[in-house]
Structure formats: C-alpha cells, structure tokens
Amino acid sequence: MKNKVILFSLACAAVLYADTIKSIEYNNLNKISQKIVDETLDMKPGDEFNDFKINNAIKDFYKFGYFDDIAVINDNGKLQLNFKEKPSIANVDIKGYKSRTDDIEVLKTMIKLKKGSMYTEKRVENAKKTLLNLLENDGYINSVVETEIETINEHSLKLIFNINKGDEIIIKKANYYGSNELDQDDFDNVTANKEKEIASWWFGQNDGEVKIDQLKYDARRMNELYFEKGYLDSQVKQPFLDIDFASNQANLDFFINEGTKYKTNDIKIYVDSSIVDAKNIYPELDLIIDNTFNIKKLRRDQEFIKTQVANKGYAYAKVKFDLKKDIKNSKVDVIYNVIPGKKVYINDVRISGNSRTLDRVIRRNVYLAPGDLYNETDFKDSKSKLARTSYFENVKVEQKRVSEDKIDILIEVSEAATGALTVGGGYGSYDKLMLSGSIKDTNIFGSGLGLGISADLSANKSAFSLSLTNPAINDSKFNGDIEVHNTDAEISKSVYDLDKNTKGFSLGFGREISRNLRAGLRYKLDFIKEEYSYNDDSTVPDTSRFQDSEYISSTLTPYLSFDNTDNYQLPREGIKAGTSLEFAGIGGDSKYLKSTSYLKYFNSLNDYAELDWIFRFRTKISVLVDNGQINQGDSLYLGGVKSLRGYSSYAFPSNTDGEVTDASKRLFANSVEMSFPLIPSAKMRWALFYDYGMIGEDNFTDTVRSSTGAVLEWVSPLGPLQLIFAKALDAEADDETSTFEFSLGSSF
Question: Which of 411, 425, 476, 659 is the most buried (most CB within 10 A)?
Fold first, then answer.
C-alpha cells in the first residue's frame, strides 16, 4: 500500500502545474478533525505547491489507519483531498463458542473489537488468533475461526466470527511419579488439570478437560501444597502432556521429588517491645511448635504480626521471615524480623464513585477519620463493613502516602442496584415445600434507609411483613426499625391441631456496642386468634379441651447478641451467642416473662490434628414465668431440626389420647456435632451428632429425650442443604419420632 501511495502521489505531482494554492478542500472526512488534517498537510492557501510536502502528507494520512484511499486533485489552483475512510464496526457477534451473553461480552473485550472500532484486516486477524488461543487453552485443538462481513452502509459493517470448535482433549490418566505421601485426591484439590472420573457429569466429579493455559501453574500449586504439608525440600517439575490425536485423549505426567516432612522446632519474633510485646503474640500464632510446618499458616502468622504492629500506627511495617532447617532431624526454626517504620496518621478520607449514596452514609461505615492514628484492623474492617452494606457492587479501599507520617484513605465505590425482587425456597420435613419472596430497597434515595415487603409460605405457615429500617440513626451507632406482620401457623399434635393467626407490629431500637456485640430493645403488639380442632375419635373430655380464644399480646424485649464467626454459611471458628428477656403485660391479655439464651460454638481441629474437622456445640435455654396469664400459643416447644432431631417438630409437650398438656415453661436443648469433609470442591460435608433436650411445665426434667444420627451437608447455590438421618434413643410409645428430615435454607 505504501509503494502505491508514493507512485500515485508522484503522478499527481505532474498535474500540479499552478504556482499558488487558491483554496484547500477536504471531502468525506469524519474520523479526524480538520485541524489535525491542516497540521498534517502543512500547507495553506497562498502557499506555493510543494510536491515533497504533498507526498509526505499522504503517507502520514495513511499512518493514521483510518483510510482506504486518498485522491489528490488540483483544479486550477483549487486543491481537493478526497478521502475514502475505512468502515466502522457497528456490531460484533461470536457464534459457536459461548452461549451466555455475559461470556460473549467478555470475549469481545478480549479480542479488542467492539462497537465503533475501526475495521482493518490486521485487527480481524489478531482477533482470530486470540480466539484460537482461547480455544486451545480450553482444551480444543484444530479449531477453525471464520469471519463473515455484512455491509450495513458505506461507513459501517457487522462482523461475525463463526467458530467451529475442534476436538476436545480429555485427560485419560494423570500420573504423579515420585509421590508417596500425597495422592491424586490431594492434588485434585489444587490443580486445574485432572484425570477424568467416572460419572464426570455429576457435580464434584472431574471432567478431565485439558486446560492448556493452566498447565504451567499446576506444578507450582502442587509444590505449594507440599509446603503446606511440611515438605520444604519438595520439587515438582513442569508436567508433560502426551496427546493421542487419534483418540483425543492424553496422559498427564508429573515428576515429583517429595523430600522429608519438617516439624516446627521453634518460633522467634524480633520486634521492638515498646510497640508490642512478642509474648502476647506467640499464643495467637497458627504455627504450633512440634506440629507439622505449614507455609500457609506461616503467611497468616506473618500477616497477623504485621497487623498487631500496624494497629499501633505503623502503617508501613514490614515483617520478614527466615527459615533455618535442621535437615538431619527434619525440623525448622521460624524467625520473624519486624521493621516498624514510623507512625502514620490519617490526613483525609476521600470518597469517589458514589453517584447516589450520600457521603455521610459511607463515612459512618469507615472506622478511620482525619487526624486518627492509623490502625490496620480498622482499615480492613472498614472495607468489610462497606461491602456488607449491600449498597455497592464493588468497594475499593486503598492507602495513599502524602508525607512521611500522613496517608489518605481512598474509597472508591460503584453503586449497586439496591432495589430487588427476590424469590427463594426450601423444603423441610415438617413445613414441606417453603417459598419466600420479597421486594425491598436497602438504600432509599441513597440515605441508607431500607424498606421491604416479604412473604413466606409453606404447608403449615404463611407470613407477610412490611418493614422500614434505619441502620444508623443520625449517622450514629444506634439503629431502629418498624415492622408490620400477619402470620398464620398450624401446629399439629397427635390429639388436636392448632390454627394460630397473629396480626401486629413491632418497633426495634438498638446500638452497636463493639464490632461483634449489639444490644437492643423491641416492643411488639400482636392480636392473636387460636382455633383448635380435635380428632373425631379423640377421647379427651370436653371439659379438658383447649377452647378457641382471641387475645392481645403486648411485649417488651431487651436483647444482646454477639457474633464473631469467620464465615456466614460454614463457620469453622467463633461464637454466636445471645440473650433476651421478653416481658408480656404492657397492656394486653398475656402476662408472662420469657427468658431465652443461646450459644453456638465452632472450633476447627486443623490446628490440633491437622484435619479439616469442625467441632460444633449448640445450647439453648428458655424459661417461661407465669405473670398472670399464659395462653397455649405462648408455650415452649421441643423437637425438630432446630432443637431435637429424631423427633417431630412440636413433638413436646406431648399429648396422649385422654389428656392435653398445659403450656410448657422450661426448655433446655443441646447439640454436639462433629463435621467432616466429603467432597470439598463441591462444598459437601457430613457430620455425626448427639442431641439432648428436656422440657417441662414447671421442671426441666418432666420430659427428657436424646437422639443421635448423621447429617449430609451441602452449601448449594440455593442455600444450605441438610439430609438428616436420626434415631431417637429413648423414645416412649406415644412419642412422635422422625428418622429422616430434609431441610433447605437452614444450617447448624
């Protein structure tokens, strides 16, 4: 093309016989401004014609990449430059590769062709090469990418990439030569390329598809796994993939030198004692002396030590570690050296990206303010708290050093759609199919206020509510809410069924006392209607039967709640605890006191036994005190998934033919559980449990029952799923037992 331009320009020069340019005209010029064209041509009316300048200008115009042709015409001193611009891409379509719209949009970004891009053959060829590389990385060989161009008009076109996927390579066998201490199951947890398993279509099973782009990283991942298991001398070489193109199957070979397993012999932390005392750090470390060394725990300890120092204002503290190996005894000493630097203060907190949410709503969720001494925990917790608000799709919190002892906190957010329509569901042995739905906005007008309407429906219950919440009244640590509700519930007993309708509202007011502790007070007013229906063959005398009733319950409940668990769906460490005292009798008919306290404890055995076992303990105690009037609907109940597995929901207080039981006023329920990994990649676990509970009218020990069993757990995309297989250990003849329960939407 360049040679063509030069020859054409020289030919034009022969006709440029006039000495002076009278005018200059540009035709069909849209891609660049006339100012840039004038600067490129470097000639103006009144100048003499210059063959050299015209020739160079045409070459420079082509360098822009916007033109297919440029014609120069001289009409008796009137100079015309006629441009033929390259067409723009009005649309890009990719067929035969991905089906999801989001995936196709990602592909368009990766091939660097989008609406409005200039069409060139080179760009299209580069896009084809990118697609072929992506296909190969996904395990497809001999793929074909063809392009189709649809002309829309003189200036635009549609570009279509038609992809014919090649053959997919499947790993028939993965060999780990030299691995004696670890096996394929261990490696499958960290590598991307895995041997195909039976029933590969089932979740959690390996499909065996080759991922070429990940091969170079798999060896590093395996080496890291060995370091986590204490094998500090291990070496994993780059794998070899042997492909049989006739069958499109491959063998994947890894060559491993494991070395020996090291134990942690000693840990030393060298840090200025005036900043932090190392004696207070040692008990909190994950690495434990005489236990197997673990590089992952070392890095967590390194970060923990840095955090303790940075919490004292040393934002740029560095923690370096050194390993001294005793090869003969397979032991290693870990030495940490802390370089604190200087104390740093907050200069300013700068917020950007919030087109809707008010600045003050963001600032109240940030634990650092101008003038504060830097604190690493506050810095990290600020990001977590902002992310938990649900106001933002992305939250980016960074530090910017402005001087030796001052930094700015930079907060960049992108607004999320806080108004949402959600539909969910679950299934339980007692409630059967459960459906739930809600319409809510958690950030009305960017104020942080939340408004919601929700509904929950099941075979035995329907509940509707309307609520308004303020998580930070006047940007303080105080919160409040108001809620209106209507609930219909059916409680089935062996002698009778109770239909209970509750209409009312509640007002709540609380305060954050510390990061994990909250306190509050709730007032609730309910109008309750109870209707009883007895079995046709019931022998309960009419005089002993519960009568239909309507009454008003007006309660005031102060409460405390604590939660420092490490994960919402699958806690491994931490405590959830709470206590409340419900006082009924501020007007209304019900007059009682109900005290309820609970504790959930989670502890991973990984630090002790180096196993992914989780110990769980749950206890709950409730006491109902008659203060003038207790209605049957106020009774305490025991049984079911949340209190005593192996017995039906609301199994106790029990009712035998010939009598009915008054309201139970004492309840004590306990569960001990040990959870084990099943298919970690699919978030599946199993557990063994023992439940012990007691309930009574005036004594805890009126009815004492226990059960044991196993649970299959899965954190599914729809929520926590439990299959519970239980056996009642000391059931009596009239007890309502349950050997299998199925629950979706609730966990331990």
Answer: 411
